[in-house]
Amino acid sequence: MNFTRIEVNNKGLTLVELLAVIVLIGIIAAIAIPSVLKIIHDMRDRAFIANAWNMKEAADYYIKQETTSGNGAKETITYLELVEGGFLSSFHDPDTDEELQPSNKSYVVIQNNIATAVCIKGAKRNLCTKDGMERAVQFHDLDKSLIMENPN
Asked: For residues 84-123, b (16+ Cβ closer than 10 Å) or e, as one string?
């Protein structure tokens, strides 16, 4: 039998090779981290908008119930009323990943038995303050650019 002898370099990496690998990993991280952070921020914005649409859907069910029972829908229905009425489950605040406690601070505006606008106030940001004034955002205008930092 003829065995081929393979020589193995048992020295490992030299210091220069190790530094080159570390530099390459640093370059990749410098490119990847901002991209990943932007994706996370965009997903949080989308979750905020999705919560607004969920409130609209819940308000639509509320309106149907009120009109079929002979009552007229109120002008606004709060997040608290939607949750207590069983129209909506409480949702998570995208910025804190904690449950956004049902309250009267977030609400849906109803005109002529149609949900027309929403105001959501999270722990760090909201979807209803513009130029220092609170205004519910029309559903057809919902956009992540309307999400504002909470005033201190």
From this structure: eeebbeebebbbeeeebebeebbbbbbeeeebbbbbbbbe
The whole-angstrom separation of Cα 134 and Cα 141 is 15
Q: Which residue has the tokens 């029309």?
A: 138
The residue whose two tokens read 């909201």 is 126
pLDDT tens digits along 95-141? 998 999 999 999 999 998 899 999 999 999 999 877 678 889 999 98
Tally of CB atoms within 10 A around 147: 22
Pick from 95, 98, 102: which is nearest to 47 by CA? Answer: 95
